[in-house]
Amino acid sequence: MAKVIILCLLAIVEMAAGFFMFLNRRSHNDRSRSILAIFFIFSAIGAILTILLAGNGVSDAGERPLLKPSSIFVGFTIFFFLMLYPIEIMRPNWLNVKRCLRILTPYLTFAGMYAVVNWTGTHHLYSTEEIFRNIDKSEVFLRLVLSLLFIPYGLWVIQMHYNWKKSSAPIKWLRAIVSITMLMTVTFSCSRLFQIRWTIYLHLLLYFILTAIILLMEIRVRFRVPKIPTAVSPDTDGQDSPGETPATGKESQTSGKKSQDTGGMKNTEEILKENLQKAMDNPNVWQNPNLTREMLCHILGTNANYLQKAIKSMGYASYSDLINHKRVEYVCREIETGRKRNLQDIFFQAGYRSRITAWRNFTAITGTSPALWGSDSENIS
């Protein structure tokens, strides 16, 4: 009874989320919300069918075979379709039929091999011990491989190149979605493939958590990617343009030697401060939402301690304070131009990928909201 109640609630939530995504599918310049709409609606239909089957007496009771081919293929299909969502956000409009088939090649290869060796019929397995006892049989081994192939696929998506100039959401949120989806697939496998009954409740809980995270990201966090070109060159696919990057380790050391050779007699801290200023003068650095303290240290050829000293000598409290000031200063300048532009577009170009973070940082630094800044153009302190 508890399972039926949970499935009813899941069906309502998923159907509502699906219709919301469908009605708002044109809010972004990609197909991510269309993918979500289909996923949520089919999830709701799946929950409804499970309830109907339970009402007709088809339950989980009794001994049922493990590693059922139908459950393996259904589980991977759901997993793969949901993986299209973070891929579409990380690489907008990159996916097409040819690329999808190329991505699916490993799975289709093993599925084809299974179809060949399974022509004589499926060997029914009723315990984990029986699975391992028959693992030397090609048909059983391939079923086990097919049930575990979601792991390398998920790890590949987590490590996938993130096109920060076109992507509209923070990479940390997308990786969290992929990780939870992998956990959902594990619990699905445990409940359907290995008949570990309690895992179905964990699976349903993860379903609710995943839906809540996706809705929060779509409603409160995610930006709309501007249709106009960003301030950085759009043809570099998220990488710094040649000739525009600041001095890296060896270049920083070379510039230091040049200063001494010309009689500048500058110490290491002064040279680092100059190189840091040059880096901050390059929008390709601080407009990158993936920029970290470690990356900036690598660019400057220094370590975290020296970087912190250089940042403080410039009047900022920390690395994050410096980067947020640069981004908010950019937003303020764009607002003060008087051009009618969407605030989300400006924040996106400044390097933010979270609306909550962008608004919070702007208010903390300027003391006012972005909407009111144009009417009170004070300098940032």
Question: Oligomerization state of this entry?
Answer: single chain
State the distance separating the first and last CA atoms. Answer: 61 Å
What is the number of independent domains? 2
Rg of Cα set:
26 Å
**Helix/strand class:** mainly alpha
The ordered string of helix (H) and strand (E) elements is: HHHHHHHHHHHHHHHHHH
Number of helices: 18
Largest sheet, described in full? Answer: none
Shape by Cα distribution: elongated
Short recap of the structure:
With 381 residues, the protein is mainly α.
What does this 3D model show about the protein?
The protein has 381 residues and is an all-alpha fold. It folds into two domains: 2-221, Up-down Bundle (Rhopdopsin 7-helix transmembrane proteins); 240-373, Arc Repressor Mutant, subunit A. It has 18 helices and no strands. The chain has helices at 2-23, 32-55, 69-90, 97-117, 128-133, 138-148, 150-158, 171-193, 199-221, 249-261, 268-280, 283-286, 293-300, 304-313, 319-336, 343-350, 355-366, 370-373. The longest helix is centred in the N-terminal third of the chain and has 24 residues, at 32-55.
